[in-house]
Design a protein that fits this description.
By secondary structure, the protein is mainly α. Helices cover 59% and strands 0% of the residues. It contains two helices and no strands. It starts with a helix and ends in a 17-residue tail after the last helix. 0% of the residues are buried. The model has no long low-confidence stretch (mean pLDDT 83).
Amino acid sequence: MAALAWLIIPVVGAICAAAWARWATRARSSGDGASLAGYERFREAMQGEAVRPEPTQKPDTEPA
């Protein structure tokens, strides 16, 4: 019975390792399209020339 217990431990470990390897190498879909498009818009906005409002000018009135 003790020999059977020592045989089960590596078999269970090998099954767990195979399951993890299969999970780690699964095909993943990349859903980065919207994220990359948002980043591209941000980058273009930051590279463009900054639009600064012109300072408001006070009317030239001299005190009498």
